[in-house]
Design goal:
Helices cover about 70% and strands about 0% of the residues. It is mostly helical. The protein has a two-stranded antiparallel ribbon with strand order 1-2.
Length: about 325
């Protein structure tokens, strides 16, 4: 047998009908990689939850959490995939009479296949595990803010019902029964009228109070306060300006949150892609290392000794 230019021996030209894939070794490496990946991911989420706090002044920043998540994901892929590839290469069937380049390719393929199977298995396991963890955390958080959320939802629903074009009848019905007499409208009814006027106007295109609505609101205020008609109109302008500014701020915050969420999703996908590529690379490299160690094992055919050992002198040179 001659030697090739690589670390493997050059084989003969004999052909064989046996498969070049050792599925047992691949599934063994994939099982080890998936188990280690699951353990490391759960550990990472445990460390992450311990660093997260509901108080903004005592928790990690969003940027810090994102960077630590990416680093931990890459670390998990490198360690778990490397171990799975090494196991697949070390446990695969020893090929005889085969060229060194072919052995190197098959070792690399075994590591890649072990990584692929482990990735699919780990994705399924992690998805199911994280689903239960996140649902538990969501239920705890929901119970803590249920009262506030209920009030906000009720207010938002009321605003939405008055802002829809098909449900503006309340505003127009109010205009039919407008009366300038002081005792014509109760306080509760006046609050409802003001709410409907504000809701309809804030959701219009120009968000400007009409002259009739402005005058009517000023009359309602003047009837219930010691303000003159002019001062009441000034108060209407001031309060409505504050309400419109609050709506604009909420819209801006919602747009910024949406943009931030889109960027985070894009960056997360890109870095996850990089981490998975790193896992495939290290799995393939580790499989070649395990294959070299597997080929370096020498079995002694001696009735007095059944030990198997690794001969350092017979090991091929390491690249």
């Amino acid at each position: 047998m001659t030697s090739s230019s690589g670390n493997y021996a050059a084989g003969s030209q004999e052909s064989t009908s046996l498969s070049g894939v050792s599925w047992g070794a691949i599934f063994a490496g994939a099982a080890g990689a998936a188990a280690l990946s699951l353990i490391l991911v759960i550990l990472g989420f445990g460390l992450g939850f311990s660093a997260v706090s509901p108080w903004s002044d005592s928790a990690m920043s969003a940027k810090g959490i994102g960077i630590s998540t990416i680093v931990w994901l890459a670390f998990t892929q490198i360690i778990a995939s490397g171990m799975g590839g090494y196991i697949a290469g070390r446990l695969r069937v020893k090929w005889t009479n085969m060229h060194g380049d072919e052995v190197y390719f098959r070792d690399t393929a075994h590591g890649f296949l072990a990584w692929a199977v482990a990735t699919l298995v780990a994705a399924t396991l992690v998805a199911s595990s994280l689903g239960s963890i996140v649902s538990g955390g969501a239920q705890a958080g929901a119970s803590a803010v249920s009262g506030v959320a209920g009030a906000a939802t009720q207010a938002a629903g009321s605003a939405a019902s008055n802002s829809n074009s098909g449900e503006d009848s309340g505003y127009f019905i109010d205009t039919l029964f407008r009366d300038d007499r002081a005792a014509s409208v109760s306080d509760d009814a006046a609050h409802g009228v003001v709410f409907r006027i504000f809701a309809k106007t804030l959701n219009s295109k120009d968000s400007q109070l009409s002259a009739q609505d402005r005058t009517y609101l000023a009359q309602l205020i003047a009837q219930r306060t010691d303000l003159s008609q002019a001062d009441a109109q000034a108060r209407v302008d001031q309060v409505y300006g504050q309400a419109r500014q609050a709506v604009e701020d909420a819209k801006t915050a919602a747009k910024n949150a949406a943009d931030t969420a889109a960027k985070v999703a894009a960056y997360t996908s890109l870095w996850m892609f990089v981490a998975l590529l790193c896992g495939a690379f290290f799995a393939s490299v580790a499989a070649t290392m395990g294959g070299r160690r597997r080929d370096a094992v020498v079995y002694i055919n001696d009735t007095s000794s059944r030990e198997t050992y690794t001969s350092a002198t017979n090991m091929p040179p390491v690249r």
